[in-house]
Structure formats: structure tokens, C-alpha cells
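User: Please predict the structure of the protein below. I'd like the answer in C-alpha cell form so I can feed it into my own downstream comparison script.

Assistant: Understood. Taking the following sequence of 282 residues as input:
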Amino acid sequence: MPGSGTDSTKPWIVGGPAVILVEPQLGENIGSAARAMGNFGLSRLRIVNPREGWPNEKARVFSAGADRILDGAELFPDLRAALAGTRYAFAATARERGMAKPVLGADAAAADTLARLSAGEDVALVFGRERTGLYTEEVSLCDAILTLPVNPAFASLNLATCVAVTGYEWSKAASAGALPFAPPDRSPLADKADLFAFFDHLEGALEEAGFFRSAEKQPSTTRNIRNIFHRLGLTKQDLATLHGAVAALVEGREGREARKAENNARAAEKAVERRARRERGD
């Protein structure tokens, strides 16, 4: 049953670049990173020497249902081993490392990754420890640097947040920016005859209610009211709703109660007639 944005009836998106977490300190952050991966169609998780060991129950709790990513996670002793078989790797870092490597934002890295995967190259996104990030030696094992336009005075991102931002850009690139749903089709726009009929209904009701207190100002007030509705681009359904609203206001609670009582009395009369016909055998 769909709920909170999760729909088990829809296919689970898999693939994309591998996400490598190097010596993550907290199971909570591993789980949150897995959740972000699931959000944006990343499914290949590699974990290098997690401090709290593996498997980790806190990671499962914080994954919020992304269990399949944790179940498929691969464990490695170091980054060299985790990168085996990878053709191209991005090192995520907020610090300039003085290395002659390409430096890309998450959007450019996603576009580059998509092109490389399409060409048959395996790509990895490498993220470092919560406290210190990647060591310079680890960055040297990667082909390019992935960084984000953060506040230079406060550049340290939570591990899962960094995975989420990067995953978001990957998802945009992989889906060509397609959104998961579109606005529902609107009712056809009302034509002028329908709109004018509503004006007559509304203005007649306002006249009866004594809204126009000044005969001199009534024409300008009427024009202002009409212009409000002209600007809205009302549909036929909108007008039907507005007609009903005006009618209900005119009728009032007492009128509605009287109409309800009348309908109930009419229904009771018909029930008596049906019972009498049955008794007569009609």
C-alpha cells in the first residue's frame, strides 16, 4: 500500500555507479546513506572497514526500508580493494588537495558518470570518514575530485547528506530530469457564455444581499469583481463549484434544513405509497 512516498507496487531502480564509504564511523550514517541511495536509484554499496563492524543493526534501522541495499553491500579491507575492477573513480572532498586532477561539481560528475557507464566503464563515487573525510593518499587513488559549492567557512557535510546530494544529481542525469508525476489534467476552460452566466448568478445574489450599498459605485465594483475571476482562468468545473457555493450561501442553513425536511417528507410519502400498493397486491 503506497504511503509516505513509498510504493512497493513500483519497480525498484537498480544500477548506477558504485558508492564506496571509506571507514564510516556510525551505523546510523551508513543506513542513512543507503536510504539516500535508494531514493535516487543507486543500489551498489561498498563499505571499507566500518568502525562498528558489519552487519550493523543501527544501519538497518536508519535505512528506513532500504534493506536490499544493505543486504547487497560488499565489505572491503581498504579502498584499493574496493576499487578493484573500477575504471574511473570520483573522490568526494571539500578540501583542495593540490593534485592535478579534474574538479567537478555533482551535476557535472553525474553527467560524466552517465556517459562512462553508457560506454561500459564501471564508475565509483568515493566518500570518506565523518570526522576527517578521505585521506590524501586515498584521493590519489581516484581519477577526479567531486566537490560541492558549500559555505567555505562551514564545508563539512554529513556523510549521508553528501551521498544524497550526489545521488540527486545522478538521478536527474539518468532520468533526463523527468519528474515522477505531473499535475492532473484540468477541466476545460470555461467559455464566455458560462462565465457570464456565473457573473449574473453572483451579481444577482449580491444585489439581493444588499452588497451594493452605493448605486454610483455599483458599476465599478461589479467590474472589479469580474476582473478577479477573469484573472483566474476558471475551468468549467471551477464554475460549477462556484455556482454551488453561491447557491448555498443564498439558501443559508435554514433553507437547507427546510429542503432536507421536505425531501425526507417526500421520501416518507413514497414509502407509504409503496407499502400500500404491496398490501393491495398492486
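That's the full C-alpha cell string. The longest helix spans residues 236-280.
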